[in-house]
Input
Amino acid sequence: MHSAQNIVEARNVSLTFETNDGPVQALSNVDLAVRRGEFVSFIGPSGCGKTTLLRLVADLEQPTAGELRVGGLSPEEARKARTYGYVFQAPGLFPWRTIEKNIALPLEIMGYSAEEQKRRIASTLELVNLSGFARKFPWQLSGGMQQRASIARALSFDADLLLMDEPFGALDEIVRDHLNEQLLELWARTSKTICFVTHSIPEAVYLSTLIVVMSPRPGRVTDIIESPLPQERRPLDIRESPEFLEIAHRVREGLRAGHSDE
Amino acid sequence: MNLTVAGALAFWAAAWLLNERLVRLDARTEPARRAVALLVPAVFGITLLVVWEGLVRGLGVPTVLLPPPSMIWERLVSSLPTLWVDFQQTFLKAVLIGYALGCGSGFLAAIAVDRSPFLKRGLLPLGNFVSALPIIGIAPIMVMWFGFDWPSKAAVVVVMTFFPMLVNTVEGLAASSPIDRDLMRTYAASYWQTLLKLRLPAAAPFIFNALKINSTLALIGAIVAEFFGTPIVGMGFRISTEVGRMNIDMVWAEIAIAALAGSLFYGLVALIERAVTFWHPSIRGG
Amino acid sequence: MTASAPIAAPGSASATTGAVLRRLSEGNTLPVLIVVTAIVAIWYGFTIYLNAPWQIDTYQRTGAEWTAADLVRDTMAQERPVLPAPHQVVAEIWKTVVDVRPTSNRSLLKHAWITLSSTLLGFAIGTALGILIAVGIVHNRAMDKSVMPWVIASQTIPILAIAPMIIVVLNAVGISGLLPKALISTYLSFFPVVVGMVKGFKSPEAIQIDLMRTYNASGPQTFWKLRWPSALPYLFTSMKVAVAISLVGAIVGELPTGAVAGLGARLLAGSYYGQTVQIWAALFMAAALAAVLVALVGLVQRLVMHRMGAKP
Output
């Protein structure tokens, strides 16, 4: 399955944590192939390992078994080559930096020149519709805006892969809908590959070209669904279309099956 | 109950009422709010002085026990040269130099401890232990090593300020959240990049906490260290000798200078803290 | 931290020592021991280094022949060394504690007891006072507004710096002996207790206070059943700070009275008469006192917290 088309490849990946109550298998025998340009959602109940899988790809954790390749490299090499941008559940902006300085953070670390930094900051701010807020501090922005700034920060440097861990989980429904639309637009404009972890079935079906359904104890993949929905998903009323509901139903069945295995 | 005492108490009552009114005032604009914030403690301070003066004079308290503010002021004004020399010896030399060296070495030691988990487990418990000990006791030993003059007092200040700085900086370096540290990992940032861009700014509130504590510790340490022996200048020296001569007004004059210097020093550090940690909720008021 | 040591079969001594060693190396004990040993070794090194000049001088004056071994031995046995060797200090402590009647003026124990008694008295009064003031501040808004600023302001007066004056003034009005020193300790220790206990009494969450209101609990009931237990961790933390600073207050309080009794007096006397080893012995005793006091508070803390079901 080694193909230049695949930006993430997992073969038999397992991760077992040692805890005071004995070993816990967070992930068990995960096989996965993500093609370039895909929008992949990972969905499942808490404890199913979806965040763990994302962190393995990001080299924030190491697998105890199996093989994982990111862009053809090991996760550690990929991280050192700055192959991906990571968006966490919380915005994680530094309160002592303005929004533009926050977006500049990875650029400073990676050694981009001053003019290059300015150019990239301006373009990513425009991408997430925060152009007027460059000089503001994070606490002066709402939760949704902070999260948009966090996404801009992940886009500012050249990474083909965007890893997002329930980025909209803490936001209310309307803001979430809005950000979902903007994310799809962003994806169309930048043609990056996006790996997106979520709790929400409509969100997963709305955003993705590929849906990975997972279940807990042990964490594993129970279903992989290729979405037949067209690339152009907006406006949001597509969520009421019969094809959408059929996929959502299939996802729900997959989740239920994982649950009843206890 | 004579007139002076009655007058003093009446003044006190009036000032109390004034402050009560001021506090309940609904100051809308920022300058008005700031004016009230300055006025209330000012009224309080002036009242304190007036009541002190009135009670001491009115009740005939012996001046060797508690001199009135007017007498202290007289002494202060007439002894400025002596006070200035004492100030130079104690504050400008022992306190400032000791403070700089102590805080600086505490900071560097914290970075070293941060680099080495072994040192963190071995040295930190010792540091916590030593900071509970009566460090002022090393003053006579410092005199033995560095002589009677200000270096021995500066040495005491160094040791006193070292540990709060070490402990607080280490705590501050651990204050950055796991998400922020993971973020730096995803950027493949080096140890020093992470230290300079994330962990030190995040540690700033803790570091300034130590700097503020140390500003008061340094002054007290230098003065008390002088009780153990000093050449014929210094604030601690002046206090202990004038006490022996029962010139309590001179002692109070020195204390007034010490309190003023201490408050200004603390205030300066607090101002710098506001500028550097403007983003912290406690400073923002958020 | 994983507890993945295999369960040793009975009689398998090497497995258990292995487990013990692993636990030691993962915890703090071994690194602390290593650091302490290193410090003692460095100390001995400095003893030789700092005392050498005077020793070499003496050799030259008396025209004696000397070897390196002689230097090492003699620098650690000087009467007025620049830096006494650890064993010299221990010997001095032994001499003034064990070899001397506790009632004599040369007994370090007697001086330690004098300092300790005023420390404990000041600490007890300071803690009680601090708790009372904190109770008042938390329950009475007038006290909160009027007393709290005074409490904070009181700490801007460097009481240690004016300790001489306080002692002399109190002596002049007839209060002498233990009480003036204890009052200095009280002044120093009440502040951390007030600050800590105010925080502690205010620490219960709003929902917990509301719960008590739904039970129509009276003021004292809410205090004893909710606020007081919540404040206990803060109390112990403050008490550790308070007891250490009470000791400092007692020591400094002994300086003005002409250095007659107590550990502070011993420090001063040693300084006047150039008795280096005496100074170090007094300092060690003071440090040991502080350590024991803080450890005792810590012990009580652990016992109480354990009974209250706190996580170890």
Q: What stands out?
A: The mean pLDDT of chain B is 87. The CA atoms of residues 22 and 39 of chain B lie 8 Å apart. Chain B touches chain A at residues 177, 179-180, 182-189, 193, 197-198, 201, 204, 277-280, 284, 286 (CB under 8 Å). The two ends of chain B are 51 Å apart (CA to CA).
